[in-house]
Amino acid sequence: MTSPSASAPTRPGLALRAAARARSAGTKPPGKKRPRRLSVGFGQSMVSDAPVTDYDTGPKELTIVKYPHPALRRPNALVENFDEKVRQLADNLFTAMYKEDDPPGIGLAAPQVGVNVRMMVYNPLRTVEAENREGNKVFVNPQIVARSEDKEEDYEACLSFPKIDGQVSRPIWVEIEAVDVDGNPIRERFEGDEARVFQHEFDHLDGVVYVDHLEADERKRVQPKLDKFIMEYEARGGKEPAL
Ligand SMILES: [Zn+2]
Prior knowledge:
Elements: H1 12-27, H2 84-99, E1 107-109, E2 119-122, E3 137-147, E4 151-158, E5 161-171, E6 173-179, E7 185-191, H3 193-205, H4 216-235
Antiparallel strand pairs: 1-2, 2-3, 3-6, 4-5, 6-7
Bound molecules: zinc ion.
């Protein structure tokens, strides 16, 4: 198995994650890292397992929940009222996504901020250097209506699993239906990186995370890091780990 940081990715969406990885590897040599303590330090907030409230009533800095927070596994409700709150939630999702810049967040689903509704956002144009907000896309109540039989394997990373990645096999193209924040229908076909990003975010709406798709050897490689996330979650007061 090739080490993710040793291989040079060829496509932009994945290149940005690798570039960020290389950058952080350069500034923090793994050999010189001090062991992290699991105690709660200053500036670290405690984990709340309770659903977030007032996430859509005004501009708000939503916190991205980390594995194994239960919000990542809860059912997600269809959006039924297309009012100003839907638009506000989309804006707040982008705010949370753009706040993440090491590596840059390129996609985020509502359950990742503790809001269990079927909304996801992404920007496949975002790079380490530029936000390119014209690439912003919002999908409400999305569905995958067709997908290729052929699959392709590539590395994925997720804002709810900081600083790790893993190889996931997915259909090369998907046809999707959704609505926008105003309830207008969207029908599109995506392939390549955008198909992968769409499928990754869409999975979140069904309580699925990318590590669920890892082959046994890849899962074994990341399991120690997942175990560390679980310990950190519990050390910060989390009571309902959803593995
Ligand atoms: Zn994710």
